[in-house]
Amino acid sequence: MAIVQKPKINPLSRRPRQQRLVMAIRGGAGVGKSHFVRSMSDAQLGRLCIFDVERKSRLLKGVGYQFDGLEIEQPDELPEFIDWALNGEGREQNYGCFALDSWASYFSAKHSEMVAAVRERTSDPLAQPTAEELAADQMILQGVLRKLCIESGKSVVIIDQIPAKGKEAKEDNEVGRVLPMTASGLEYFVDIMVEVSLQERDGEIVRVFQVIKSNSSVFEVGFEMVGNVTFKDFLDHMRRESGPDLPMDSPKPITVPITLDEKPVSLSVVAPTITIKDLIEKAVKHGFKQADVITAARVYHNQPNIYHLTTEQILDLDRRMTVRIEKLKSQQDISVVEKELIIAEEKPARSLKRA
């Protein structure tokens, strides 16, 4: 008997076939973060989809026809919108890249809901979540980052705001938070984190993009781009440094089977079990005695106590007994045939004597 296994994924089919860039861009208000996100639509990655928590994509040139800006009216809508784009009917739009504007707005809205729930539960208008509650809240909210940055398999930009300088670190130390509030885990889901700011250089105010955290050897911490920088500029730098091994525009053709061969699995036949009681009954039924079983156990397995025999040893004695029974049966059949022949030979002799 054989059964067919379910198809198994061939791990070799999951080797990277396309280069992509997942980045977080942080900065104060008005430094051009949203315009940088809009530049993804010109990077030849496919149609851009912006999950717009701040509802500002309406201000960007090309919205609605060059790229999509989906306004998130309620924080709870964000996971649903992402599922729609990745796994639902939104797949028909063939989005080639995604952006979230902004992580801080979504995080703060959900965090405010949790604070309100804590204060309502404790009846304390000044109550704050415990470190354990914050950690649990972060794990749930990070599900959004996991879907967008990992499960999408596309290039992604996530916008995050920077609070007043020094305020974030101060809160972390005084409240005892294990992780920063808005950056909580964000750096673990992105390849690089870039801070954008307006700085005076050579007598001019310029926009500076500086890598502040990196999981990629292509972008070292401290790496800068200055001026009207676009997402394509970062992709071009990655292409120059990493080489042409992985294409940017479309994945390389897969060269191995996606699933492993389906091989039938043979089911081994389990040998029937037998107890020492069954063995004794079988012996008596065929003309043997319990003493014969004890003698066989001593001879073949050096075990004088038949009740200490293992299952394998009992099966061995049963096999030997079966052979013996078949042999005796054959001898009996031969004896019967010989007797019939003798009787048949004696009948003519008796007839002659009578005559």
What's a quick, concise take on this entry?
With 355 residues, the protein is of the alpha/beta class. Helix content is 42%, strand content 17%.
Layout of SSEs?
Elements: E1 2-4, E2 22-27, H1 33-38, E3 47-52, E4 68-71, H2 77-87, E5 95-101, H3 103-122, H4 131-151, E6 155-161, H5 167-175, H6 186-189, E7 192-201, E8 204-214, E9 224-226, H7 231-242, E10 264-266, H8 276-285, H9 290-301, H10 311-354
Parallel strand pairs: 2-6, 2-7, 3-4, 3-5, 5-6
Antiparallel strand pairs: 1-10, 7-8, 8-9
Helix pairs in contact: 2-4
CATH architecture of the largest domain: 3-Layer(aba) Sandwich
Order of strands across the main sheet: 4-3-5-6-2-7-8-9
- Helix run count: 10
CATH superfamily of the largest domain: P-loop containing nucleotide triphosphate hydrolases
Structural class: alpha/beta
The arrangement of helices and strands along the chain is EEHEEHEHHEHHEEEHEHHH
Structural shape: elongated
Radius of gyration: 40 Å
The total domain count is 2
| Sheet having the most strands | 8 strands, mixed
Low-pLDDT segments: 164-183
Number of strands: 10
> How far from one another are the termini?
70 Å
Our estimate of the beta-strand percent is 15-25%
The level 1 CATH classification of the largest domain is: Alpha Beta
Which topology of the largest domain does CATH recognise?
Answer: Rossmann fold
Query: Mean of the pLDDT scores?
Result: 83
Q: Kindly state the percentage of residues in helix.
A: 40-55%
Summary keywords:
Rossmann fold, alpha/beta, 355 residues, 10 strands, two-stranded antiparallel sheet, 8-stranded mixed β-sheet, 2 domains
